[in-house]
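Ligand-bound model needed. magnesium ion.
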Amino acid sequence: MPSVRSAAFGWGLSGGAARPRMARPNWLRIRGPLPLGTRRMLGLCSFLLPLLVWAIVSYVPFIWHPNMLVTNPGDVDYFQVGMSVDRATFASEVTSALQAKQAPPQGVPANPLYLPSPGAVASAFIAAFTSSAGNAEGGWMLASLWKSIQVIFWGFLISSLIGVPLGILAGANTAVSHLVEPIVEFFRYLPAPAFGALAVAVLGIYDGPKIAIIVIGTLFQQILIVANTTRKVEFGLVEAALTLGCRNGRLLSKVIVPAILPDLYRDQRVLLGWAWTYLIVAELVGATSGISLFITQQARHQHFAAVFAGIAVIGIVGLGTDLLLGRLGRRLFPWDRSAAL
Amino acid sequence: MTDQETASALDPPPDVVARLERMKARDVILRVEGLDKQFTGRGRGVKALDGIRFQTHRREFLCIVGPSGCGKSTLIRILAGLEAASGGVALLDGVPITGPGRERGMVFQGYTLFPWLTVKRNVMFGLEMTGTGRSEAARQAGEWLDLIGLSAFAEAYPHQLSGGMKQRVAIARALINQPRILLMDEPFAALDAQTRARMQAYLLDIWKKIDVTVIFITHDLDEAIYLADRILVLSPHPGRVQEMIEVPLARPRSPAQVQSAAFRATKARLESLIHAPTSSAAEEEPYPAMPLMANVLDTVE
Ligand SMILES: Nc1ncnc2c1ncn2[C@@H]1O[C@H](COP(=O)(O)OP(=O)(O)O)[C@@H](O)[C@H]1O
Ligand SMILES: [Mg+2]
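Prediction:
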């Protein structure tokens, strides 16, 4: 009798009626497709879930709340209304007051000062945009933000004017690549803030050094990323152009540049994000200005809700710009299929 | 089929002889003399081509066949000027080929259309590169799109076209420059059988109408016989010219000719050349015996 042991090697399709496999989207599948509604919902949840956690920690009194907010100091002489003390201290003061037959202090559970509730941050946010504390123009936040956006704009523009052409040349030409990229690799590892003092010495204390920090933080990465993107152009396109009579400069302007445009655009979006992350450091160089001035001032007065509002504004502006650029990109490059995410 | 029958079927009929004579009476357009190509990789080098020698006449349709890896692509890339030979010369109209040029059009297996240009702008590309005005280029591209039946897709992007359409655009893009010679490296290999048959008929139709010499690489022997005036057979490791065969089939070609004795005899001849015992039977990788992985009682044969 021949062995039937091999039957165990069957490809796993034995028996069982065919089940409708694709009826429901399987969320765990690698790169499995999801309907648009689900994708939108997940995008919303990506923001709502952390917000929900924050709200629960803030508003449910028995979750965390390590401090007590004093509402009535009673007979404890160093307590004041609105003071925040940790629970252990509060409890021991209550017991010692009761033992001494004095009026015990009263309070409600509270989170530390540095974790304001979503509501507090929201009202600080609105207040920052509407009130004109310390600023004649009204909307202190708005004025600060505008200042920051200008710094980012000039920094990123100057960096791109140098970095994009140089990156494309390095990606397209081996000689330029070997001449430029080693030194750029070196500079890439130097933290931009290290140049702060130098930038102030050279460029003064106002916008100059801040823009310089953004440029230093962005430029070197930009050259390398753009060079890599350029190297990834399908060489068959270049060869096809060569056989059609395209040469040198034209090859660059009519083939390589258009071929990389969609990817270059994506790179620029990512790099703009990095430029934003250098903003705070840049603005602290020389005379503090912009949104950093707003944040540091508020932190000095322990207005942490306003600090959070200031940080949130950076995120909102950054994300908003990126969404806008993404939408614009789909318009600009109708042939680019990878853009249709 | 006996050897005698094969021999007689390989003898071209008088009209084919006359056509081939006419072809050979035309001037030699491309002369390849002792072309060598040595790839110097890390460690060991590869000799891809060794002393390739042949010539083609104006308006000839030459197919190059040979087993995979015998240097067909390397040869055509040298002719296109995309690769430099290690020795020997290729002369186009008596002038040595030293780099790419618009007098040699090329169609690649991968479509290599410019994805950022519309179909029409793709076809216009060569003219615009060589200084023809935008409006004149557009006019000529329009004519070519009419010719390849893609006028309706003038404003479409390449990714919106099927494989056959893309390759038609690639052919038009190469031919609009009026090249002396059209180099094609397995251009239809990625297409399905039906589309390929249509593309072959359509290529012959264009070739017949314009003054161009075609060098067409394929590994499909049927395709080579159907298309070619003559077939250059290469042998591998290193690539050498094994034989130049004249196709004894009358033109215009039709798919029905596949059944003819001449066609079958030519194919048998090519097969015997390509699978000749000399052609490195030793280098063929033996494939390992596979264990039975199904129920032995459940036979399928
Ligand atoms: N760029 C290269 N570097 C090294 N070896 C190569 C290169 N291109 C091709 N070869 C080698 O040359 C030989 C011929 O290749 P190719 O011309 O592509 O063959 P074919 O097109 O006939 O299949 C092969 O052995 C291949 O490995
Ligand atoms: Mg090949």
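The two ends of chain B are 30 Å apart (CA to CA).
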